[in-house]
Specification:
It is a single chain. Helices cover 15% and strands 27% of the residues. By secondary structure, it is of the alpha+beta class. β1 (40-52) and β2 (55-60) form a beta hairpin. α5 crosses α6 and α7 packs parallel to α8 (532-541). Bound molecules: 2-acetamido-2-deoxy-beta-D-glucopyranose (5 copies). Residues 1-21 form the signal peptide. Residues 305-604 form the Endonuclease/exonuclease/phosphatase domain. Keywords: Endonuclease, Hydrolase, Nuclease, Signal. InterPro entries: Endo/exonu/phosph_ase_sf, Endo/exonuclease/phosphatase.
Length: 615
């Protein structure tokens, strides 16, 4: 911090601040909202540090010693800057305003209706503040003092920053840190892209400051109570150039200088010009899994893949087939999610996915893979959410020469599966409690009982194992981690909690009849392992998180990129007998989180496990 203040104080020492002047620090104040909101201010002095299409940024020449108060300010007005340029020292009056264009966002403090009182001088050289050098390092774990220590805590949205307006604690909370630099011209040295650029070229980065959660690919992974507030998004360049859209997680980026601002729900740096990738990740795709099937119950392989709105005419059948054959090494059974009906998003009464699934299994076969068979249960039309008309559902692909349904007896769309003595299932496969309102506009889990076909002896019930394929409700409706609601709204969390409880209780019923039952549940849970729905899921069901069982490094537990974070939505949970077998291996294959946006096949990574399901 020392350098930060010395630079200003040297300047300030020669100038006395009169009571009839308002400083930029006074306008910003030590909280999120300006103490001078809606007031007219005059005699505001500053040096222009940057210009944008709708205004310019001023840095104070009368800084205070308070690190909470930003020394820079956005002056909003398209015409105002017409005759002004970077390096001009000006005196301005106007009205302090708090602006946001969406009620879920934070307010940006600005000076509106500016009038130039005086141009004092021009040609002052403007130095950006180097983040982590002229400023402290951004905090690495917590976002806001209003989050109660956990940005994903339930209940969420218990307070609003715009109402509570807490005092900034830039040392501890990420939002407070970025707010304390609002309007400032900053430099990010040695930036690394943390996730792939979005279609506008917006790119999350961290500079050469301390970070937590760095994974092997140089992204940042969310862990319990650490959601990476040290990341900052690089937004639209001020000079009208465009950021590349091909940036991938872990790419090195040229030093970035720009203005700290807030828009579209996030603090962001608006770079003076487009960012440049200096060193792109070499290896585009991960290595294939090391897990190969043993071809018998002591080591069958289980794949899990959300294939993102797969319809019969989807262009990604071939790529999914290649992923399954080459990178997942053709697992013996594959839990797939987001399989659409036989005419995809066409919104009519068709619900069968036979054509979709036949198209996929044919693509696998024709690419040299095994001849998979599939099973699914059709949903009731338009009742399971997802893309309208698509009727997405979960399904199993399996190798019929190795695995078969144990006494198949498929249930109907609304038949609730039950655990019978044995244990066996009333419907095999069958959906779990499909009429329960917890599943409104969501996929119903599909429970099945299987036997591994043994070459030696005929299979008996003792050789069976159970599976549950899930695709819980989506996080749609979530508010931004940088948004007004604290803790942020975790969209659909109440539904997922109810869904987790229903599914877990079904599994508990199997284990009540046979504590050694071999059970594998997998799929897109749309939630993190350390958030309430999955904590309860594990606790009620008694299942073990396979990531933990297989001792996967916490930072490598990711299957999805969202905003600044690598995160895990796709999980596998297994019963004790499977967990304890000594053959509980698991890998997440980063086929879709690593490539650039335009090259990803699905938005989720697939995973593959090898498990012992013998008696
Ligand atoms: C404006 O502020 C400067 C610096 O504090 C001061 O010297 C000057 O008197 C003020 N001018 C007016 C008109 O208040
Ligand atoms: C900019 O300068 C031109 C030419 O002197 C003048 O006509 C115009 O009004 C000025 N614009 C502003 C916003 O001061
Ligand atoms: C597949 O068909 C649907 C209509 O059923 C259409 O909207 C979509 O664009 C088609 N997709 C491809 C890849 O051809
Ligand atoms: C889909 O396949 C299943 C199993 O072969 C069959 O029972 C069902 O009738 C098929 N549905 C349609 C619409 O062809
Ligand atoms: C959070 O709660 C407030 C009411 O306190 C409500 O106005 C707002 O819409 C909620 N935010 C979100 C994102 O749901």
């Amino acid at each position: 911090m020392a350098a930060f203040f010395t630079r200003f104080l040297a300047l300030a020492a020669s100038l006395a601040v009169s009571s009839s002047a308002t400083t930029i620090a006074e306008i910003n104040g030590p909280k999120f909202l300006s103490p001078l909101k809606d007031q007219a201010v005059s005699n505001v002095s500053g040096i222009i540090t940057a210009k944008g299409p709708d205004g310019l940024w001023l840095r104070s020449i009368y800084p205070d010693r308070d690190e909470r108060t930003s020394e820079s300010l956005y002056v909003f007005g398209r015409a105002f800057g017409a005759n002004l340029t970077v390096g001009d020292s000006i005196v301005v009056r106007g009205q302090v305003a708090e602006y946001r264009n969406n009620k879920d966002y934070l307010y940006l403090t600005q000076l509106s209706r500016p009038v130039l009182e005086k141009k004092v001088s021009s040609g002052t050289k403007v130095q950006p503040l180097v983040i982590g050098k002229d400023t402290r390092d951004p905090p690495t774990e917590q976002y806001s003092s209003l989050d109660g220590g956990d940005v994903f805590a339930v209940p969420n949205n218990v307070s609003l920053i715009s109402v509570a307006n807490p005092e900034l604690q830039p040392k501890t909370y990420g939002l407070d840190f970025w707010e304390s630099l609002s309007g400032e011209l900053v430099t990010v040295q040695k930036p690394t892209a943390l996730t792939k650029a979005n279609r506008f070229g917006d790119t999350w980065v961290a500079g050469n400051w301390k970070v937590s959660g760095r994974n092997d690919r140089d992204g940042l992974t969310i862990t319990d109570k650490d959601a990476n507030p040290e990341a900052i998004i690089i937004g639209t360049p001020l000079d009208g150039t465009k950021n590349p859209t091909s940036t991938r997680m872990g790419d090195s980026v040229e030093e970035i200088t720009g203005i700290v601002s807030y828009a579209f729900g996030f603090y962001r740096i608006l770079p003076t010009t487009a960012i440049k990738i200096t060193d792109s990740q070499k290896q585009e795709l991960p290595k294939p899994t090391k897990l190969e099937s043993k071809g018998r119950c002591s080591g069958i392989t289980i794949g899990a893949y959300n294939v993102e709105n797969l319809a019969p005419n989807s262009s990604h059948h071939g790529a999914v087939a290649e992923h399954i054959i080459k990178y997942l090494r053709s697992p013996d059974i594959i839990f797939v999610q987001e399989v659409q009906d036989d005419n995809g998003p066409t919104n009519d009464a068709i619900v069968s996915a036979n054509l979709t699934l036949t198209t996929l299994t044919a693509a696998i076969k024709s690419a040299g893979g095994p001849a998979y068979t599939f099973t699914d249960i059709v949903p009731v039309d338009d009742q399971d959410g997802g893309q309208p008309g698509g009727n997405i559902r979960v399904a199993y692909l399996y190798k019929p020469e190795l695995i078969r349904l144990y006494k198949p007896n498929p249930g109907g769309s609304l038949d609730a599966n039950e655990v019978l003595n044995g244990p066996t299932l009333k419907y095999n496969p069958g959906r779990i409690d499909p009429a329960n309102k917890a599943w409104t506009a969501s996929r119903k889990p599909l429970a099945a009982q299987w036997e591994v076909i043994s070459k030696k002896s005929s299979a008996s019930k003792a050789d069976t194992f159970f599976t549950v394929n899930v695709h819980f409700g989506s996080k749609g409706g979530s508010s931004s981690l940088h948004g007004d609601a604290r803790p942020p709204v975790n969209g659909g969390v109440a539904d997922r909690l109810a869904q987790a409880q229903i599914t877990a209780n079904f599994i508990k019923n199997i284990l009540a009849k046979d504590k050694d039952a071999r059970i594998i549940t997998a799929g897109d849970f749309n939630e993190f392992a350390f958030v309430e729905p999955l904590e309860q899921y594990a606790q009620i069901s008694g299942l073990k998180d396979l990531d933990a069982v297989a001792k996967i490094d916490k930072l490598e537990r990711y299957t999805y990129l969202f905003d600044m974070n690598a995160q895990q939505l796709d999980h596998m949970f297994v019963s004790d007998s499977v967990a304890k077998s000594g053959e509980a291996k698991y890998e997440h294959i980063h086929l879709n989180t690593w490539p650039e946006l335009a090259s990803q096949v699905s938005d989720h990574d697939p995973s593959v496990a090898r498990l012992d399901v013998c008696a």
